[in-house]
Amino acid sequence: MEKVRRDFLKTAGAFAAGSLILPFGCTPKNSGEKAEDAAATAPVKTKDIGLQLYTLRNEIQTDGLEATLEKVANIGYKWMEAFGYENRKFLGKTPQEFSKILSDLGMSMPSVHSVTEVSSSGGKEAIVDQMKITAEDAIAAGSKYLVWAYLKAEDRTSMDDYKRHIETWNKFGEVCKETGIQFAYHNHDFEFIEFDGVKPYDVIMQETDPELVKFELDLYWITKSGNDPVAYFQKDPGRFHLWHVKDIDPADDFFAPVGQGKIDFQKIFDARETAGMKYFFVEQDATREGVSPLDTIAQSWNYLNEASFV
Prior knowledge:
Elements: H1 2-12, H2 14-17, H3 35-41, E1 50-52, H4 57-63, H5 65-75, E2 79-82, E3 85-86, E4 89-90, H6 95-104, E5 108-114, H7 123-140, E6 145-148, H8 159-179, E7 182-186, H9 200-207, E8 213-218, H10 219-224, H11 229-235, E9 242-245, E10 247-248, E11 255-256, H12 265-269, H13 272-275, E12 279-282, H14 293-306
Parallel strand pairs: 1-2, 1-12, 2-5, 5-6, 6-7, 7-8, 8-9, 9-12
Antiparallel strand pairs: 3-4, 10-11
């Protein structure tokens, strides 16, 4: 699983380098409905459902961004969350180009992921300046949220590491607010590994400014860590503006299409007001061998669009 998480960092620069991680190899389980079938049978009235584009990183590289986004729009998705920000471009497109592509397909991008180095030869001032530029580009692409996507293993070896980052994230939140966008933090499962009986995620919640730093709660990773999303909504209500909606195969804890695993989504969605949720994005970090990510996101979309609690 650590390899899956670290692929984000490798992939962010791959569109400039011209290569991407290949699909993950596992045993096929349940490919279900095809993406084309989902598009053909989609009801006229659809819900606003988002997608984190990291799910389709290989398709974007192979088929091109525009062709892939057209397939996503045909399934029924409305909100996109981008990754792959590099050289002031999102997946190789300027903010204005990316925004127009989405608009022409009836979609928008309320949130973007970015990874900014937590250390720099130019010091903290250079890091903050880079975050300001990133925030400006996210706004130009039409986004309302700029999300810290991932903390590398070497940057989280102790609670003191986390506390140093918290200071930086508060500053990022301040810069984002001044620029006109909301800063947020996206979790994995490592934030719930305790140091001396204390979970880093709890410290992040307690020591980041609640107005400057919101949260994008990844429902797969928090559940895999053995923690309850709803309990965290209740700990810090109104702060979980964004969700990553993804499921867990109970057989082996691998990623599963939404509604085909062990997560109780009705319980979670019933607590959306407590959470303060504004947008949610389907994501599937990896699929089993022979299973198309386009098919799995079609299955996830169908489940969520038909669910009475969404």
